[in-house]
Amino acid sequence: MNTAELLFLALGLATDAFSASVCEGLKMKKTNYTGAFVTALFFSVFQAFMPLVGYFFGVRFADVTSAFENWIAFILLVIIGGKMIIESFDNEDTDKTEYRINLKEITMLAVATSIDAMAVGIVFSAQKTNILTSVAVIGAVTFVLSLGGVSVGKRFGGRFGKKAEIFGGAVLIIIGVKLFVEGFIK
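RESULT FIELD:
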């Protein structure tokens, strides 16, 4: 795999993390650099870790993981997206609510958006790809896109408030449904 192919692959893998990062940014009323950094870090670490898992387990467990990956991503994203929509109605005074990092939620989002990267690791194993270089590029690209996603989400969240949070939750649910449907098309 050449450098251009690896960069395009990393961009493709990072798109779900970017979307989820936008949703995290929607919750911020003012810029929270720690929250943005932690969000980007979680997404990039999981996006880099999953190809490693796929690489080392290779074809041996491909049938098991591929049978459940879409279900797991679907369930996690629908739960988080639904929770985000419900919370948008619960917050009476959203302007005074301080953003707090929810590690459990970010971890679930990071897992849900990186499951497809495990299959990429299986492909890396079959192609004898340099796994360390590949996961470094995937992690770096995901980190940058996720950081940008939080920033984009914060801008829209500040302008549109509850509507933006509802939209963000709907986006997560749509991504979950898309991944679920793709599991049946394969």
